[in-house]
Amino acid sequence: FTRHLVNVHQLQALALISITIEGEWLATLALQRGGSQIFTQGELNSLLTIVDQSAVILSNQQLLKQAERLYQVGQSLSQVLTRDDALQIAVNQVAEYTGASQCRFILYDAHYGTGKIIAEYKPTELVNRALFSIKDDLVFKHLSQEMKPLLVDDREDVPQDCLQKYVCQLG
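and the corresponding structure tokens:
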């Protein structure tokens, strides 16, 4: 592989430096040199300084894009007339922002002891059909008491109740 790089591309030196911030990979700086010069330690130290500065710039750029998107969501929400319009805009924006294939808002009514879908990203017939009983609902209990997200993935055993109500019923 190295001889191929040297022969075909006249490459004598290659430096690949990851650009990260707080443990998150953002990009890679790829430098190559022909001729007979390899990268010196002093050059690499200078490159690492540039990479650190680049990481901050890239991170700030990502934060700016996120802030712009959130500003657009706020602008859209400030122009709506009804609660349902606001919820529909919000659910669409959340799905697009996160890249989720589906996003739903479920509103719980303690008086009736149920929850129902009040907005969804890709509307289905579930809006009028799906009901979520609050009684003995581990998800509702967690969300209302812990006040923090409940993450469900393949790393943990998921309670059957949660699967039935929030995965199978929602498709």
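(Above: one complete record from the training split.) DSSP finds six helices and five strands in the chain.
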